[in-house]
Amino acid sequence: MEYDVVIVGSGFGGLCSAIKLKEAGIDNFVILEKDEVFGGTWRVNTYPGAACDIPSHLYSFSFAQNARWSRLFPRQDELLEYTLGVVRDYGLEPHLRLGTALRSAQFDEAAGRWRISTSKGEMTARTVIFAIGLLGRPSTPQFAGAERFRGQSFHSAQWDHSIDLRGKRVAVVGSGASAVQFVPEIQPLVRQLDHYQRTAHWVLPRPDRAVTRIEQWLLQRVRPLQLLFRAKHYVQFESRVVMFIFLPMLAKFMEWQALRHLKRQVADPQLRDKLTPNYTLGCKRVLLTNDYYPALAQPNVAVLKDGIREICEHGIVTGSGEERPVDVIIYATGFDVEHAYGPIELRGRGGCSFAQALEEGAGAYKGATVAGFPNFFMITGPNTLLGHNSMIYMIESGVRYAVDGVRRVLRGGLHSLEVRPQVQAAYNQELQRKLKRTVWHTGCNSWYLDSRGRNLVIWPGFTFHYRHLTRRFDIGSYIARRAA
Ligand SMILES: Cc1cc2nc3c(=O)[nH]c(=O)nc-3n(C[C@H](O)[C@H](O)[C@H](O)COP(=O)(O)OP(=O)(O)OC[C@H]3O[C@@H](n4cnc5c(N)ncnc54)[C@H](O)[C@@H]3O)c2cc1C
Predict the structure, then answer these.
(1) SS3 helix, strand, coil % of the chain, rounded to 5?
(2) Which of 67, 187, 203, 311 has a CA-to-CA distance to 330 between 20 and 30 Å?
(3) Contact, 137 vs 340, CB < 8 A?
């Protein structure tokens, strides 16, 4: 089969791309999804307490607002339900190819087509929109002896709901964004919870609450109120960027707030000491929770800071040599961002490898295109992730740019459209220069930095600046070849 566009991934990025292609009058496309169900992040991460850290009215498409959110901060099941509604309302079902994983794609220079191989067969496409997300590959550290463990273990992003945790001795390895959500949920169920914490995180109160019936009623009937609600949250979250990028010393005020939150919720000074971070707030993701600290203060919880020496048959040996028996190990150890595109083999012009091009070229252009890979557009590509606001805003910006690029290839009868290498290099040089002055480069060891210390993850600016950069396709930055 030949398509005008093949979209890879059915998370918010893939679905938004599909909707905007249809609006642009482009209908000959498919959405490849490796799993049997669409939805991306919020279908995969089903751990107890899974929820978004951005308010519902902002963490949703601007063009598909929902007046019926039940809470200010959406939970995983409600987000999944929202995506189901989007797929139905925009008629995307016929385009979805579920259980179809992209295995490899190679640009055929003679034909000006991508030759695509999937788990269910071959296809060709004039253009590709690559929306597989950066947080899709769970990362589990290789502890010595892990293979000897006789109990059960799983990663929080692959939660094993068949395991009953009631009355069990559970070890939670990692204390980041996922752990702070599920630890309060499982703590009352388990006999003993050993919480292995490498670094204490900055934690602020989560201003979550139910959206009242009256608010829902008003939001349904008065559309400007929806926009106002969204705008209020946008400004509130966007203002944090001033601190992260321009004035890291403003973090002191938020650090004071976070320490006050800790003091109010944890009475034991020794535990408080363990939970006090030793880096500038914002350098790692700031966590929002009201029930994490109270859970850690319960008598069946131990916060362990001396690391893991090895895993044995029936437990974990800590860094100080103590053997602690456990029945279940839950890894809340995040994602392998550096190898996010992992097993997919992408080859561009002259057979060049995508992984190598990203590695050597240190990034992409506007997080969307890469020199050597014509007619190929990424959503949430390098340096588009946020530490402070809604990714949906970034996704909508990236999609507008990608769809404009696709439109130019198809309508302009182009053989290929490829970013100029020198434009991409200058863009990344400037990006890395900006990043050096931000809070993410103040010395902490975060997943935003790769093994070489480069930050190919974070967008170092206002999100409206990214929107401005992507408002239309800057064809002058590209080499456009006409079809013969
Ligand atoms: C636990 C967690 C919490 C988060 N919380 C927040 C938050 O509070 N605020 C925020 O803004 N962002 C948050 N994020 C980031 C979140 O990932 C983005 O907001 C957004 O959902 C990304 O959408 P996406 O479409 O780019 O990627 P994804 O949602 O990851 O979707 C990618 C899709 O591509 C599919 N895919 C992958 N490889 C292939 C292949 N080879 N072939 C076919 N299909 C493939 C995957 O199965 C998946 O369905 C969170 C992420 C995680 C993991």
Answers:
(1) 35, 20, 45
(2) 203
(3) yes
Tell me the two tokens of residue 301: 């919880």
Tell how far the Cα of 33 is from the centroid of ligand 1, in angstroms: 12
Query: Cα(394)–Cα(241) distance, rounded to whole angstroms?
Result: 14
Band the pLDDT of 484: cuts 50, 70, 90: confident
Residue 13 alpha carbon, nearest atom of ligand 1:
25
Question: Do 19 and 123 have their domain in common?
Answer: yes
Q: Per-residue pLDDT for 226 more than 80?
A: yes
Query: For position 361, what pLDDT does the model report?
Result: 66
Tell me the percentage of the chain whose pLDDT exceeds 90: 89
Rg of the chain over CA atoms, in angstroms? 23
- Ramachandran class of 180: left when φ > 0, alpha when ψ lies in -120 to 50, beta otherwise: alpha
pLDDT tens per residue, range 147-180: 999 999 999 999 999 999 999 999 999 999 999 9
Pairwise CA distance, residues 473 & 395, whole Å: 15
Can you tell me which atom of ligand 1 is nearest the CA of 344? 41
For the stretch 241-251, what's the b/e string if a residue is b when 16 or more beta carbons lie within 10 angstroms of its beta carbon? bebbbeebebb
To test the ligand 1 pocket, which listed residue (100, 132, 346) has its Cβ within 8 A of the most ligand atoms?
Answer: 132
Q: Are 322 and 177 in a shared domain?
A: yes
List the CATH number of the domain containing 416. Answer: 3.50.50.60
Q: How many angstroms separate the alpha carbon of residue 130 from the centre of ligand 1?
A: 12
Residues 83 and 96 in one domain: yes
CA of 194 to the centre of ligand 1 (A): 29
349 and 464 inside one domain:
yes
Instruction: Give domain status of residue 236, yes or no.
Output: no
* Whether residue 301 sits in one domain with residue 159: yes
Which residues span the domain enclosing 474?
2-137+336-482
Are 452 and 313 within one domain?
Answer: no
Closest residue CA from atom 27 of ligand 1: 133
